[in-house]
Structures are given as structure tokens and as C-alpha cells.
Specification:
A hairpin with a 5-residue loop joins strand 1 (3-8) and strand 2 (14-18). This protein has strands at 3-8, 14-18, 35-37. The protein has a domain at 3-39. It has no helices and three strands.
């Protein structure tokens, strides 16, 4: 079951939704039923698992832009 990214056309809220078949998607913030599907990149690693490294958390001084312990 794919997870899609959407942006609500009414309130600009961005969210992800697990979609089953032809299920209708509504905005979890304003309940509008006109979200627009966003283009998103996916990452595939060994065994089909996502292989996306964590982003910077911003709490480690002097560590640069990478995640803690991964620089």
C-alpha cells in the first residue's frame, strides 16, 4: 500500500496519506476533499527498504550540517 504526499488546495497543509485502492483523500487539518498529489522522490536500498540518511538536527555545536555521529 503506497504512501502518497499531498498538499491541500484549501489551506496549503502538506501531509502524507496511506491510500487503499480508490479511497478518497481529505485534508486532516481542514477536511477539504481537494488535496493535490505532490511529486516526491523515493529511496530504495537493499531488500526494498528506504535508504535515506537522517538529516541534521541542529543540536550539535561544531558538528557541521550532518546528523550527530555521522559526519
Amino acid at each position: 500500500m503506497p504512501i502518497f504526499e499531498y498538499k491541500c488546495a484549501s489551506c496549503d497543509h502538506e501531509f502524507e496519506e496511506l491510500v487503499f485502492g480508490d479511497a478518497k483523500v481529505e485534508c486532516p487539518k481542514c477536511e477539504a476533499q481537494d488535496p493535490q498529489k505532490l511529486m516526491s522522490a523515493h529511496a530504495v536500498g537493499k531488500g526494498g527498504a528506504a535508504a535515506v540518511p537522517p538529516g541534521p538536527c541542529g543540536t550539535c555545536p561544531g558538528q557541521g550540517g550532518g546528523a550527530c555521529g555521522l559526519n
